[in-house]
Every structure is written in structure tokens, then in C-alpha cells.
Amino acid sequence: MSIRPSVPSQSSWRERALAALPAGSNGEFGLPPELVPVIERGAGPLVWDTEGREFADFTMAWGAALPGHARPEIIVAAMKAATDGANFAAVNRRAVQLAERLQQLCPCAERVRFVASGTEATMLCLRVAHAATGRRKVLRFEGAYHGQHPVGVAGMIHGQPRNLPHCDPSGAGAPWVENDVLVAPYNHLEQTAAIITAHASELAAVIVEPFHRCLSPAPGFLQGLREVTRKHGVVLVFDEVVTGFRFAPGGAQQYYGVTPDLAAYGKALGGGFPIGAYAGRADIMDAVNEHRLPGPGYAWSASTTGGNPVSCAAALATLDLLCQPGTHDHLHALGRRFRQRLTDTLAELHIPAQILGDGPIAQLAFTSKPVTDHDSYLATDRVLGRAVMLGLIRNGIFLNPMGTKLYLSLAHTEAQLDRFCDALRVSLKP
Ligand SMILES: Cc1ncc(COP(=O)(O)O)c(C=O)c1O
Questions:
Q1: What is the residue with the minimal CA distance to atom 7 of ligand 1?
Q2: Domain count, the chain
Q3: Same domain, 120 and 237
Q4: Closest C-alpha among 313, 271, 231 to residue 68
Q5: Which residues are CB-contacts of 305 (< 8 A; sequence separation ≥ 6)?
Q6: Given this model, what pLDDT does residue 4 score?
Q7: For residue 283, is it within any domain?
Q8: 243 CB under 6 A from ligand 1?
Q9: Which of 123, 211, 267, when mutated, tests ligand 1's pocket best, judged by the most ligand atoms within 8 Å of its CB?
């Protein structure tokens, strides 16, 4: 006998989602209940919900579906792999092939390990850095998100009083994490270098989103981080979960010309299928070599589903697509066109805004002043931003209403950009 009240089967999928999932979501949106869409299917740049409504998708699985939804080459490769056995929790041919592709593409990737998500990838980079250095603290940047583990979240939500490098652990669910996390201001090299230098003897790693949320690095910022971390023997970790394979085949390291010690990957690598990977210098990655057990420089790393052949097959097919000549030029050109169209549309409506972004990514920031760091981002009109995002959803645009990144895909065309700008005009009509 069930002890839970059952939801009548004639209820809508939205009602059923709200009854089964906290806030009716998987953590993604914080939408008002009447707007919670329950997705039925996707194709290319479009998704449909269970009520049959069509949306132009501008979140693309938070950037994971870079080739577009249900891209045939990827589906065929994954299905073929599944028929050979979906998971062995062991090294398999497709995992080896994928590791070799990452070695070829990603400048830092002398060795590779697979996990199942971006969260695990960044978490393992940090644990490997702890094991390799024997140091307990990490430095991250305010406002950054590195996944769902405590260090990934601590310092993301802006807290008061703000006293850098003290970490505000709001949202981490593990307030004690503040003892081991230092927070620095992104794009402020001098302040960051001073924090690193002052804490060098206890600092295992500096983790950075090279393209921080939707902000580009100031000239010399990443190069400066590289120099100061090298000088103090601190492991430099690039969180390439967003930038990997999207800005260039070799990700942000190739795009910005700075090679970290370790890097974390996820999202676009799987072409929509779940995957994560971390990679880096062979001597540092050797911290996960089981032959070191139980030495102090050893970090346990084992994943039941990481490196499964289905996700690896999807990733190999995805990389085949992304590495075709001209693909990244096309993605960058599409992103530039989108950002220009957004700029023009908001100017025509006399709404003060900055359009942030690079590559096939954009973000609306409602302010007349340039946005270059966390402080200038916090000074934007985020109440208006949220209202616009909800308006866009009501007008057939699927996106993340937290007002964060808009993701384009290989499947987007001028038709979706038109649709977005039209919906923006309607949403902003007085
Ligand atoms: C920069 C960055 N790192 C890590 C993650 C976590 O990845 P996942 O959601 O696959 O765990 C995200 C997710 O949005 C991200 O944007």
C-alpha cells in the first residue's frame, strides 16, 4: 500500500512535475509554477512541451546540445554503441579513442579520465590538485559556478558583508567549505595575484572559468594567472565545461593561448549525452594512478558510468562534426550576428543594455555601463532581466530565466534569431 497521496493520472504533466519534483524542476529554472514547461521532445533548434507548444530553444540543454537536438549522426553512433553493451565500467575501445582525440585537441591533455558530468570533472581536478600538492585550500572567482559540489557553489551567490578573499558559502549546503576556499575578483589580476602570493604555501589550486559566466578575460588576465600560479607551484585549473570544444576545437586554452595544468570538460563534449572528463599534465594526473595507493599523493577516482561506450560514441561523433573545417568560424559568425541583432533590437526599443558573450553564446545585461567584472554585472537591472526572460518564455522562446547565457547551436539559423528578436519586442512592449 502506498503511503504517498497519488496525483490523479488525468492531471497535467505540469501538475505531476510539481507534485513529484521540488519546484517542479530538476534545479534548472525557478520558474513560476504556471510557466513550468515539461519537455516532450526536441529537434534541431526547437523543443516541444507536453502541451504541444513549440519553442525556439536558446538554452540547448545549457549548452550541451551544441550540434542541435537529436542530431542523426550522434544518435546513430550512440545507438550502435548501446547495442554492443551500454556500460562495462571499464576501459573500452570507444573510451580509448575519445581519450586520444582529447590528447590531440586539448593543449593540456597529456592524460585523460572520464566521469559523468561537469560537476565531477571540476571536483576531480581539485582533488587531484590537493593530492599532487599536499595543500588544502583552493582559490576561485566570485560569481563562478563549477558544478554542484560545495566548492563549485561556494562564492557563487553574492553575500554580504563582502570581504575578499573570504568565501560566502551561501547555497553550498556545507557552510564549513568556507574554511578552505578563497575568493578573488575575476579580471582583477593585481588583487588576485596578491591573494595567491599571500596564501601560496596552503594553496593547491586556482580554478577559473576562462570565460567567466559570460565575461571575456581582460587582456593579460589569464596569462598573469598562469605566471603567478607557476611561480608558486599552484595547480592552474581551467573549468572548460562551457568553453570546451565550443570556442575552438581545443577550447579556451586554444582560443586564448594559455595552457593550464588541468582542465575539466562536460556539456558540448557529449553532444547532448551525459559525459564529463578531466585532463592535464601527466605528472599531476598520476595522482589518480591506483599503483600509488595508499600513498599520501593519491586521489581516489572511479566512476561507474564515466567513459561508458554510449556517451563516448556520442562524443566521438560530436567531435567529428565540430572538427569539420569551418565549423567554429560558423559558430562565431552566428554568435556575432545574434549579438548584433540583440543590440539593434534593444537600441530600437530605447532600452539601455549591454550584450555580453563570445562564440555562440550571448547574454542580455540591462545597464548602460560596460560589464567587465562581477561588480559591474551585479549593478545591472536583474529585475528587468528576469521579467524579460519570463516574457520571452511566454512568447515561445525556451531559455534559462535566471537571465544567464543564451546558447546557440549548429542547428540555429536566421529564422530562430528573427523569432528571438520578435519575441523580445513583444516582451518589452509597454
Ligand atoms: C562552468 C561550469 N562548470 C561546471 C558545470 C557543471 O556541469 P554539470 O551540470 O554537467 O555537472 C557547469 C554547469 O552549468 C558550468 O557552467
A1: 118
A2: 2
A3: yes
A4: 271
A5: 87, 89, 116, 274, 311
A6: 64
A7: yes
A8: no
A9: 267
Q: Is the dihedral of CA 246, 248, 253, 258 positive or negative?
A: negative
CB-based burial, 298-323: b 16+ in 10 Å, e otherwise = bbebebebbbbbbbbbbbbbbbebbe
What distance in Å separates the CA atoms of residue 305 and residue 399, rounded to the nearest whole number? Answer: 29
**Residue 279 shares a structural domain with residue 147:** yes
Mean pLDDT of the residues in the chain:
94
Query: Are residue 292 and residue 363 in the same domain, yes or no?
Result: no
What is the rounded CA–CA span in Å between residue 307 and residue 301?
13
Residues 414-420 have a mean pLDDT of 98
Of 272, 294, 322, the residue that ends a domain is: 322
Q: For residue 393, how far is its CA from the centre of ligand 1 (angstroms)?
A: 23
Q: Which of 298, 301, 302, 272 is nearest to 287 (CA)?
A: 298
Residues 44 and 181 placed together within one structural domain of the fold:
no
- Pair (313, 333) in one structural domain: no
- Tell me which amino acid residue 225 is: L
What are the catalytic residues? 145, 239, 267
Domain with residue 42: its CATH number is 3.90.1150.10
pLDDT at 177: 94
Which residue puts its alpha carbon closest to atom 5 of ligand 1? 147
Predicted pLDDT of residue 295: 82
The answer as to whether 7 is a domain residue is: no
From 304, 322, 340, give the residue that closes a domain: 322
Q: Whose CA is nearest to atom 3 of ligand 1?
A: 146
Q: Are residues 146 and 222 in the same domain?
A: yes
Q: Are 365 and 353 in contact (CB under 8 A)?
A: yes
CB 272 less than 6 A from any atom of ligand 1: no
The predicted-structure confidence for 223-266, as pLDDT tens digits, reads as follows 999 999 999 999 999 999 999 999 999 999 999 999 999 999 99
